[in-house]
Specification:
The structure is a single chain. By secondary structure, this protein is of the alpha+beta class. Helices cover 41% and strands 21% of the residues. The protein is built from 15 helices and 13 strands. It has helices at residues 70-78, 85-90, 114-129, 138-155, 157-165, 179-183, 187-197, 213-224, 281-304, 338-354, 359-373, 376-381, 384-397, 404-417, 420-428, and strands at residues 2-7, 12-13, 23-32, 37-43, 49-56, 93-99, 104-111, 203-209, 259-261, 264-275, 309-319, 323-332, 436-439. The protein is globular, with a radius of gyration of 24 Å. Belongs to the peptidase M16 family. This is Peptidase M16 N-terminal domain-containing protein.
Length: 446
């Protein structure tokens, strides 16, 4: 009934600092004969709560040209189970759905009780089967999504998408959808999309909590093993509406708008980093170290030119493992233009590349990260939901899911292998600022 089963041995994450707790983490994964992947993560972080998820490698990128927003509609309709009074009366739970470019995720949180877990797994199976995609709910769902699209537009999120991905394939596949396309979507289209993409070989089910992994595995096998078998003719799940490879964004438009709130200037700067570079643990840690460097040198550089900075943050954004951007968020008081801010940041990045003394800062930041991962602060930040999100991310990206003992060891080894030359090289990639977009919005202070 199952294949490719992997079990990671039980362990305790230990911290010598006073007051730290130990943590149990046992991961049991497998693949059912119909292609569905499952994972049970047994942990003692929370004795009362269990989180479950159905994850699909299906999102807005799988939509055809005339289906803009349909993945979002399917997700909303699948959440209609909540309208049935039975579940409200007899099952204590919270739930939500999420549609993104490359995934659709359904999450449940319930009491750590075998009946509750079984009921949630049963609902997830019904979602996989499309039981709740009923025509009488469609118009109300479309109105809800239209309101959500309007809200996103008011919040400026669509402006950000347009500035970064204008003229790119992604712009026509924004997960929230297009209001006009959503309005004209029929029930026939919705059921066809579900049938085409909701297949076991694109799905995973995860359960995380203080559970007995053997019993939960047995429940998953009993509930999901008979789920409709994958249609091998759609194994790659590509059709005429889907390109063989996702195109890279075109050169970005420079939005000449600075958003002001009172006497505060709020500016977001997106610098295109690299295209189609595999994201690994080392590349993630390398960029995190670079972000620490950028926070330090850019904040100091802005203040040195008389730009009073109230808030500065740099971060790397990985767009579905295909596009990487370095995002700077600057809140400042002053008369500097966005182009002046970019020039200051550009100069600061040059200092990282050319100043050999900055290498000492690299070592300091490496030590900071190493200390954090072994600290009580890090351990106290772990929760059941975070472990579930980690399971989801590893499934979508196709990377192995490690227990925290192995994960922490790999982080330590990788940090030790990173040198200043690699950080400097990562900084050099940011010096080409031709593809830079400035985005933000005017906010109402009332």
């Amino acid at each position: 009934m199952t294949a490719n089963m992997r079990v990671y041995i039980n362990f305790r994450l230990k911290c010598t600092m006073k007051g730290c707790l130990s943590m149990k983490d046992r991961i049991n994964t497998g693949t059912l004969s119909n292609g569905l992947v499952y994972g049970v993560r047994e942990t003692d972080l929370d004795a009362e709560e269990v989180q479950l998820s159905l994850v699909l490698k299906t999102g807005s990128l799988q939509q055809r040209e005339d289906e803009n927003g349909i993945a979002h509609i399917v997700e909303h309709m699948n959440m209609n189970f909540d309208k049935y009074s039975y579940y409200k009366q007899y099952l204590e739970y919270t739930s939500y759905g999420l549609t993104d470019f490359d995934r659709t995720v359904y999450v449940f949180s319930c009491r750590n009780h075998e009946d509750s877990i079984r009921q949630c797994l049963f609902i997830l199976r019904q979602i996989a089967e499309g039981i709740y995609i009923r025509s009488e709910f469609l118009e109300a769902i479309k109105q809800d999504i239209a309101a959500e699209i309007h809200s996103r537009s008011q919040a400026g999120k669509s402006e950000t998408d347009q500035a970064i991905f204008e003229h790119a394939f992604y712009q026509s596949r924004i997960p929230a959808g297009d209001a006009e396309s959503v309005r004209h979507t029929s029930h026939t289209q919705v059921t066809a999309f579900h049938k085409r993409w909701y297949k076991p070989d694109r799905m995973a089910v995860f359960v995380v909590g203080a559970v007995n992994h053997t019993e939960i595995q047995r429940e998953i096998i009993a509930i999901f093993s008979e789920l409709f078998c994958a249609d091998k003719t759609h194994k790659d799940s590509r059709d005429a509406g889907m390109p063989a490879e996702y195109p890279s964004p075109q050169s970005q438009r420079l939005t000449k708008q600075l958003f002001t709130v009172g006497d505060m200037n709020l500016l977001e700067i997106y610098m295109k980093h690299t295209d189609q570079v595999e994201v690994t643990l080392k590349s993630d840690l390398l960029r995190n170290i670079l972000v620490e460097q950028l926070d330090t040198v850019c904040s100091e550089a802005l203040r040195s030119v008389g730009c009073p900075v109230d808030f500065f943050a740099a971060m790397f954004i990985n767009f579905i493992n295909l596009q990487q951007f370095c995002k700077f968020r600057v809140v400042y008081r002053g008369v500097q233009s966005p182009h002046q801010i970019i020039e200051v940041i550009n100069t600061a990045i040059c200092s990282l590349v050319n100043d050999p003394n900055i290498g000492c800062l690299v070592e300091e930041n490496k030590k900071k990260y190493a200390d954090y991962y072994s600290s009580c602060e890090f351990h106290s930040s772990l929760d059941v939901h975070g472990l579930l999100e980690e399971c989801v991310e590893h499934f979508i990206l196709g990377s192995p899911l490690l227990s925290y003992e192995l994960d922490m060891q790999e982080i330590t080894d990788t940090l030790n292998s990173i040198g200043y030359a690699e950080v400097r090289q990562a900084a050099e990639l940011l010096l080409n600022i031709q593809a830079t977009a400035l985005v933000g919005r005017e906010e109402d202070m009332r």
